[in-house]
Each structure stands twice: as structure tokens, then as C-alpha cells.
């Protein structure tokens, strides 16, 4: 089976899940923690080498503060949870802003845990414009490598496959440069309803796709 | 009905269509011309204000020259075809390269035809890295407007909806900045099998989506 090296994860639908289950919206985020761990273990078993989770964005922090607090805490907890696994952890986002959680600052350079044989990246207080905002070229430079080396998320590699939960078919600012050639798979279930079978479905579909990198 | 202002069109599957119909691959491109016109007219009738067609990319020009010639000619013909419509035409791409067709140079600034009440953009010899390659910031600038004003495709507005024909679920370098919040709809039929019903399907689906712009 052709396994993607790097999978991007957009864990959407926490608030809709909470509402459907009679909870207030912000209560949905905690329900996404175990799915995150289960997804990590499933992907690891299948031989995926790198995972990137879409934590929260600068856009998201404009939501009511009770929600902002809840998703920020969920991101901190998710990173801490993976410290107990064999993982090499990195948090990428605008860490100079007050919205960036203090507890995650030490992860803005990669930290290894256990065998550290799988890279796991979290986008935290990330913004596409923050990511591209560091590019500096002279007018004749359109070198891909120079772009790739100068974005703020340069430690995150090209994505092979992006899986989005919650039914929406859009990227919502997720790593615009690394997403360029990625295949995009959408799961209709909300993220808290994650099951390993979703990964199997996505990989079975990915298997049928060709890789052309735009050629 | 909620009509997207700006639709991006990825007209993929010409070569696969040709092969399925017993032709050599490069013969598929010509079959995409009438669909392009029909799509324009359908969208216009529905009140869409701007259309962007993915013509060809710098990546594509690495294909066998018989194909490169065929898709370049099809792009030139597509632009010329729309001169007879009420359209405001713009061609965006690396026009300093020899792969850019001479005949389209005059369209690298917008040209109005008839009532010119719909913007139509064509990406011709376009590359995502060419597009981003002009960005210049000082380190503290992550302003969205500054990014949007400095990309090489700055005359093309934000996309609301992207429709890709040919079944593949990826952007393949299509306007990474304008695509950030776009909804992405995939039609399994190959582009030469376009029918106006595809637009109805896509718009019916789009109608059910919310617009959050990342919020």
C-alpha cells in the first residue's frame, strides 16, 4: 500500500458535535483529545512519518473568549499528551502574540520524546499571513526553494494528504505552501466522532490517486 | 440562492478523456474549448461576477512538446473566443518566459469586450512560486492586505468557490492566496464532458455551506 509520508489533519466539528450532544459549544474541544491520540497511534502503525494538526488560528481567536480559552487549553493538553509517545514534537505559530499559550513556547523548537520516530507538528495561533509574512525576495527570485526556506512554517514538510473532519471542503488557511500538491480527503463525521476506520477510508482513497506534483 | 461572486475553474481530465475516446492525449485540449464558453455563459446567467480558468502552469510545460503546444494553442483560442462575449479579460502568468504565448501578451492588462460586465481571468504559464515570488516585507509585516497587494496575481480577487473537473481533489498550485477560504467542489466527469448541470450541482452544494472566512 502506498502510504503518505506526511498527513495534515483538520479536526473540525467540535462545536457542532457539542451542540448535537446537548452541550455548550466550547465543551466540544476536550472531546477531541482522545481522537487526536488515537489518530496518532493509527497513523504510526501504518508507517506515516509526519503528522500536522491544525490546532487554532489567529482568525479563531476572535471567537467568544470562553471558546478561545477552551481550544487553547485543548491544544496545550494535546501536546502534553503526546509527550508520553514516541514523537518528535514541534509547535508552529505566532508565538510573539499574547494569544500564544506560554506552556507551549518550549515546543517552538522541536523536542524529542521516546524513540521520537515520528514528527508531529501542531499549528497553534497560526495564520497564513503570519506564515507568508516573512518572505523577502529581490524581484527576479521565484525559486521554490527560496520560498520554502523562508516561510515561517519552514520546519514543516510538504503535505501528501490532508484529511478534514466535519464535512467542510476547504483549507481555511491551512499551510498554503505545503498544501499545494496535497490530496484532500473530507470525512463528514465531526472530529470527536473520529474512528480509526476514517484513516483506512482515506488511505484507501489515497491509494487510487496518482502523484504528479503538478507535472 | 446564494451565488458565489468568484468561481475558480480547474478544467482537468482532457488527456484522460482523449484516451478514453481513442485519441492521442494532446487531442483532448481542443475538446475543452466549447465547455469553457458554455460554462462562461451559464455562470453569467446565474449572476457570477468573476471567473478564473486554470489554463496551464509552468509545471505543465515540462510535458512532451506535442502536448505543450496543444494546450498553449487551446488557451489562446479560449481567450479569443471570449472576445465575442461581454467580458473583461485578463491573462495572468509569467509572461517574461518564452513559454508564454506571444498572442496573449496584450491581455496581461485587462481588456474589455462588449458590456464587459463579467471579469474573466486565465492563468497562463502560471506558477505558485512565480505568484509568491514578488513578496517583499520587513520582518514585522504580516498584514494580509500587504500580501494580497504584492502577489503577482493581485488583480484576481478572493475565490468563493473552486470547481475541479476530472475527479482529483487537490489544488495543484491554483492561486494559493485567493484559495485560502474557498469552498472546493469536485466533479468526477472529465472537463470535455462538461454540462451546465455540473454548475447547478456545485451551486446547490455551495448553497448549503456557511461562509466563515476562518472565523
TrEMBL record, chains A, B:
It comes from the Bacteria. Pfam families: Prenyltransf (PF01255). Its EC number is 2.5.1.-. Signal peptide: none annotated. Gene3D superfamilies: Decaprenyl diphosphate synthase-like. GO terms for molecular function: transferase activity. It is an enzyme of class 2 (transferase). InterPro entries: UPP_synth-like, UPP_synth-like_sf. CDD domains: Cis_IPPS (cd00475). Keywords: Transferase. The keyword Transferase applies. The keyword Mitochondrion does not apply. Belongs to the UPP synthase family. Z-FPP synthase subfamily. This is Polyprenyl diphosphate synthase. The gene is uppS.
